[in-house]
Amino acid sequence: MVITKTLPSVDQVWEWLDAVPDPEIPVISLVDLGIIRDVRLEGSEFVITVTPTYSGCPATNVINADIEVALHEKGVENLRLERQLSPAWTTDWLTENGRAKLERYGIAPPQSKGAPARCPNCGGTDLALTSQFGSTPCKALWKCNSCLEPFDYFKCI
Amino acid sequence: MAQDQALFEYLLRLGDNTLVLGHRVSEWCGHAPVLEEDIALANTALDLIGQTQLWLGLAGEVEGKNRTADDLAYLRDAWDFRNLLLVERPNGDFGQTMMRQFLFDAWQMINLGRLLKSSDKRVADIAEKASKEVAYHLERSGDTVVGLGDGTDESHQRMQAALEYHWDYIGEMFVSDPVDAAMVKAGIAPDPASLRGEWDELVGRYLKAATLKIPGDGYVHKGGKTGQHTEHLGFVLADMQFLQRAYPGAEW
Question: What is the pTM of this model?
Answer without folding.
Answer: 0.94
